[in-house]
Amino acid sequence: MGEAFSIVFILFGSSTYLSFSNRVGLSTGLSEVALSLLLALFLVGLIQSGFNGSGLAVSGSDVDYVFTSPVPPREVFAAKVLMNSLTTVLFGFPPILVLYLRFSAYYHSSWSSALLAGLVTLVFLVIGLLLSADITLSLGHGLGERKKLWRSIFIILVMVVSLLPITLLIPGIPAGIADVTRVLPNGLAAAVSVGLVSGATVGLAYLADLLLLFAWLGGVLTLGVRMSRQHFYDLLEVSTPGGEKFDKPNQVSRLDPRGKSVSSIVRLKEKIMMSRTREARAQFISAVFLSGFMIIYALSGSFPIITDLVPLHPLHNRILRVRNRLQVDREGTALDPEVVTYQHAEIRERSVSGSRRALAVLSRPGNRCRGRSIDSGRIVPALALTRRDTSTSRRTGDR
Amino acid sequence: MVEISIENLTKHYGTLVALDNVSLKIGSGEIFGLLGPNGAGKSTLLKILVGILRPTSGTIRLGEYDIVADPEKAKKLIGYLPENPSLYTGLTTLEFLQFVGKIRGVADDLLDREISDSLKSFGLEEKRNSLVGSLSKGMKQKVALIATNLHSPQVLVLDEPLTALDPKTRVSVKDWIGSQTRRGVTTILSTHDLDVAQTHAGRIAIIDHGKIVAVGDIDGLRRMANTKSDAGLEDVFLRLTEEKGEEPARH
């Protein structure tokens, strides 16, 4: 449940792509860049959870009972990471798969290529989860002075990996940075998966991308395994259970240890705890809030590629601020349907023509950082109406 | 029957020395009391003993196993009752005990029997399917006690087992401690309750500011504290901790 943020975000992104793919042709360049950014945002969210300890949550109960038991810490580490990743995979994978199936339908490639593309993105998701756990492990205080330097270097590298792709949103960013982001996990996952669904020829460069992606996976996994050999729970910030009240104090016991391994028991325990405690609900609410913020940022124009796509989705028009082109009051304001229709037609027309130009622009590797696909020469008046004011007022949107 | 050997154990938290060169030997089947004021280092010592914390230097051996070098084998011998145990509040009593028993290697058929017998003897049968989080403090402590003993450990480490318990539960827990000691299990008992320490412990170590101030049976401690021969443990304790009340070493 703690990964619900990523689920909602992927659903949002996927629905955006689905709606866009219905209206306008997609090019590999636009798909790859936008998907790369989508995955980068997911990575940022996961890494953030690593820094606040939820990448590898350790409770006081774990310390008192699991880490005083003969179970090797690495086994517990693996069981916890697996539980976290399982949740993300179960909920996050289907919409990703649907997205790729729509892509493959558009490119007339086979469903198997969509499935493979989905699996590649799955690899990326697991990389993110392992990285998140690695960050939590690295924050243990029991490091020697020499290792603290390495830990600092690791954290700086993680911040670069997670934040660098977002810089693609900055207009005029040097092309070299775009090339660097190309070898990061999100760039590689996007390139490989979009290449699969678009039916691109498998060449050496493609295979190199795939190998590099798996190298990332191997690297973060190895790092976690090495760090988990230590008593990583030493002085970790552990949470202690508070005075929680339960609506149903009596439950049917679901943990049957007969014939099960220790790893599966640890995973089962995590699953039961997540389903019964308010921690799970709190995480879900927190995730919904985060998702809401992500949607607001996207709709407000922070992510040019996504918001250029979003205006074509009828559901978002009423709460949309389209890159300074159309401002709509989201508080239930009544819009003049004729004006809205006219505006939408204008935007759609401009988006299509602009997108076609942008597709060509974006296809060139050096121009990946540019997200604008609308003709900047035309000014679109912004429209805002209040609930009480029935007259329309027009003002020119800021550019 | 397991002997415990602690040699030159030191633990630093940054510049704070929580344990300063502590050395103890606890014989097989002995009941060993650990007394000290708050912040003396008792819990730190016990947490290193059970493998939660790593020492800065020194060694702890349980029988032939070093807790740092061979943690899995050493931990198999230990039953640990934490101070204010953090139980899994979202599990039922049965699930919690099944989970603990399983990770401590209790065989499946034996586990069911042990849990049933223990719940009966502690009067918790009706609470089998109750969430641990909904139990009273006394019931939680009883559940924690059952969990400590499910795998029939050869070493018991009890950290403040009577803290904040109602009188009825305190009696139950004291009786339980008595029954364990009669079984010949090597037991380390950290407590503020001097009556419990005096009643059950053969030898007592007094720890203050991370250092062992005195070790011995009650008569030996009286001599060290230079008190009367019938002086209570409280007087002995106060005398010894007042005399040795020096600042902890800082690096």
Sum up the structure in keywords.
heterodimer, A: 399 residues, mainly alpha, two-stranded antiparallel sheet, globular, B: 251 residues, alpha/beta, Rossmann fold, 2 domains, six-stranded mixed β-sheet, four-stranded antiparallel β-sheet, 9 helices, 10 strands, disordered C terminus
If interface size is counted as residues with C-beta under 8 Å from the partner's C-beta, which chains form the largest one? A-B, 46 and 41 residues
Kindly estimate the percentage of residues of chain A that lie in beta strands according to DSSP. under 5%
Shape of chain A: globular
Helix content of chain A: 55-70%
Please summarize the sheet with the most strands of chain A. 2 strands, antiparallel
Largest sheet of chain B: 6 strands, mixed
Termini of chain A, distance in Å?
Answer: 40 Å
Determine the structural class of chain B based on helices, strands and strand pairing: alpha/beta
Oligomer: heterodimer
CATH architecture of the largest domain in chain B: 3-Layer(aba) Sandwich
Number of strands of chain A: 2
| Helical stretch tally of chain B | 9
Widest β-sheet, arrangement of strands of chain B? 6-7-8-3-9-10
Whole-number total of structural domains of chain B: 2
Short description:
The complex is a heterodimer of chains A (399) and B (251). Chain A has helices spanning 4-23, 28-51, 60-66, 73-107, 111-138, 145-163, 175-181, 185-197, 204-228, 262-276, 278-299, 304-309, 337-363, and strands at residues 381-384, 393-396. Chain A has 399 residues and is mainly alpha-helical.
